[in-house]
Amino acid sequence: MSLEHAILVSLSEQSSSGYDLARRFDRSIGHFWTATHQQVYKVLGRMESAGWVVADVVEQDGRPDKKVYALTDDGRAELREWLAEPAQPEVTRSELAVKVRGAANGDVRAVLAEVRRHRELHADRLDTYLANEKHEFPDPARLRGRRLHQYLVLRGGISLERGAIEWCDEILTALTPATKRTR
Amino acid sequence: MSLEHAILVSLSEQSSSGYDLARRFDRSIGHFWTATHQQVYKVLGRMESAGWVVADVVEQDGRPDKKVYALTDDGRAELREWLAEPAQPEVTRSELAVKVRGAANGDVRAVLAEVRRHRELHADRLDTYLANEKHEFPDPARLRGRRLHQYLVLRGGISLERGAIEWCDEILTALTPATKRTR
DNA sequence: TTCCGCATGTAACCAGTTACATGATTAC
DNA sequence: GTAATCATGTAACTGGTTACATGCGGAA
Known about the structure:
The structure is a homodimer. By secondary structure, chain A is mainly α. In chain A, 64% of the residues lie in helices and 7% in strands. Chain A has helices at 3-13, 18-24, 37-50, 73-84, 95-102, 108-136, 145-175, 178-182; strands spanning 53-58, 66-71. In chain A, strand 1 and strand 2 (66-71) form a beta hairpin. Chain A is elongated, with a radius of gyration of 21 Å. Chains A and B meet through helix 1, helix 4, helix 5, helix 6 and helix 7 of A and helix 1, helix 4, helix 5, helix 6 and helix 7 of B.
């Protein structure tokens, strides 16, 4: 697909500036799609030319002006069509996995240190996701529509991180010498 | 990183042709890194210029000639250095997740059908991985070194697929009307 | 005779990253 | 004074995808 449709989804929830979108791609939607601000601006330009979004310049005091983008009817139509298309299966590219596979060609302990570091990164992300879940969706059983969909995506992020942590632990258990492990 | 190092790892296990490498990227290593044959050939060219690999033309009867690539000492050195560097955390890009999040903007049932389709794709991949595990690593407790590392990466693929299936199921349970579910 | 597997590639293109650039305000 | 946050962008580059091209052998 590419960023376009992720932006359409994001704008369907809330009109916002490129800056704001870029920040949201560091959070909520960002669990499953990332984008730098440079790319967001570039793509927004294209989308405006295509007539999917319109910009409204908002002046602020004490802060730079901003362009707030909103979906047009064409944008909404595009989004609807895209949703009906098949989604291609995600490709997981894990540099860490390649390093683990090739570890015997270098210093295995260095690779293990990386696995440990990644484990912590995933644990941190899991914590933020869980805090998010607790704070934003305290009563999941009652959720309907949009909110339920958002919740489900967050749940996906949570189980992804849990899986990653478990995998790191499996590697660490298997590759840490028993002498170190038991002491 | 990029493909280069994945190819170095692959060649460290077994010298092979570009065609063969491309096929392996559809399997074993491919759980965590993919590449088309076009890209493999392109990168192999670059790697040969850099002196990381050498090609040996092998004539075959009844089949086209092939170039079998092998690691050089420089290639091995490069691999060793790369293994000592930190790995950047993977970015998971899931088109399906974006569709789930935006589902309310279109036909929710169409998105659910996609979730169901993806569930089956993941289930199929899980089956191949499990068959692989059983066949190639019947006695995991005894594994050491390279073989153990390969096994651990396969385990990662397995838990990734399991996680994906569970997530799909969670979505299906949450979004399928109870009337259809209980029947 | 048509399609699949083996085997290697080129060319055009697109998506995404990194580096660079500007400028005001606020908090330490 | 120094760094962080808000806000928008351009330019160069890299990595990866898609389309196209060739040619033999064997199976259906």
